[in-house]
Amino acid sequence: MICSDKIAHAGYKEIVEIMGAFGLLPDSRDLLWETPFGKAGSLAQRRYSQCAQNDKASCKQVPDTSYLVEPVKGLWLLAIDANVYIPKLKNGAMVFQGSGNAGYNKVLTEKPFLLEWITKVVERAKKQNKTLVAFSHFPMGEFYDGQTQSIKSLFGDSGFQLAREPSSDTRKLLAETGLKLHIGGHMHMNDTSVIESEHNTLFNIQAPSIAAYRPAYKLVTLNKQLAKVDTVTIDKVMQFNLLFNAYEKEHKYPKSNKPEQAWDKSILAAKNYQSFSKIHLHELAKWRFIPREWPSDFRNNVLQMSLLEVITLFDVEQNLVSTAKLQSLQTRTVLDFISDFYLVRNAGSLAFVDISKQDQKTYEIMAKLLHSDGNCVNNASNEEKTTKNICQFIKRQLRWPV
Question: Using an 8 Å Cβ cutoff, are 154 and 393 in contact?
């Protein structure tokens, strides 16, 4: 086992040196290799002018590592550097921000030359009868199965990584380049979206991560101008528990010193990689996602409520309640529901194998009851503050999935 921190703060220069053999630099075996700037691989010849956000007169030459390669005859792979680092002028110096929340909305404003280049590459691919597949770190499409507006209504425009989602106008402009297939990363989500523009249809495939729930990768099989995209799950990995002894030691510290911060030790009993990644995501939901993305009042007063307690806040028709399996609503909490929601958010349909049929049915019952046009009421058996929090929260949502 080799541990190294050399990549922790690597910049363009170091990353190109490390990853150059994987396409970032030309290879004598390539049938074609070029960039938006020509055929030179040197970073000194692959730069554009980036101006400060607060002073457009202050600009600096910044690398862009986009490239087009033909590794085998007839196949063009287009790698797009969609990272945008926008500096601010501070005390006379250019201070750069990270690219994590920039994405293609900023590519359009800061790197317009990329869209021009992509459009020309598409035209050349058609003329030369090449099969073209594009890749980049950021998504070109929506990644919440059409639920973006519902999520915005609940959590605001910046919650749930929505800053990384291209706007509708941006998506259409990307589609108008003529690209047909794009594989995106960064989100660690399994999703597919279709982008329609006036002259083209673009498919955005969000590739899941092999290091996050649910571990998987995309396999693209090409047949002339047809592409078949399969999702291959990685449920079993040899030595996935290699560091469990170290984790065991790590767990002892918060358990003894800060018990309120102790994570669920049951993860160390995981029998395979899939199970390990599922528990890991549930812990991320508890310790990171929920505190970051859900209102504090909601967290403090609602998470431990059972789904049955939630239903009692609504003035739903009695005959609808009687058809529900009240016991199943009693046994599942709001926290359970939200934790499973994050499984689906990350893995899409791949998550259903980890949510029991009974739990899925329980959530369907919950959704149908909330769809019954019942009014959220201040039930005397519930604390007023708790009732107010969940009623206000649920009234803000557009539509619960059924």
Answer: yes
Residue 243 carries which side chain, given as an amino acid letter? L
Q: In whole angstroms, how far apart are CA 164 and each of 187, 190, 204, 269, 300?
A: 9, 15, 14, 35, 29
CA distance 47 to 49: 7
Mean pLDDT of 177-199: 93
Torsions phi, psi for 375 (to 5 deg): -90, 140
Q: How many CB atoms lie within 10 A of CB 129?
A: 9
Residue closest to 43 by CA, chosen among 19, 65, 11, 69 = 65
Contact 162, 152 (CB under 8 A): yes
Q: Is the pLDDT of residue 321 over 70?
A: no
Q: Nearest-CA neighbor of 38 among 111, 107, 117?
A: 117
Peptide bond into 292 cis (omega under 30): no
Q: Where is average pLDDT lowest: 16-30, 32-46, 63-77, 377-391?
A: 377-391
Cβ atoms of residues 176 and 195 within 8 Å:
no
For residue 125, CA distances in Å to 28, 178, 229, 307 come to: 21, 10, 21, 54
Helix (H, G, I), strand (E, B) or coil at 204: strand
Q: How far apart are CA 70 and CA 400, in angstroms?
A: 46
pTM of the predicted protein model: 0.86
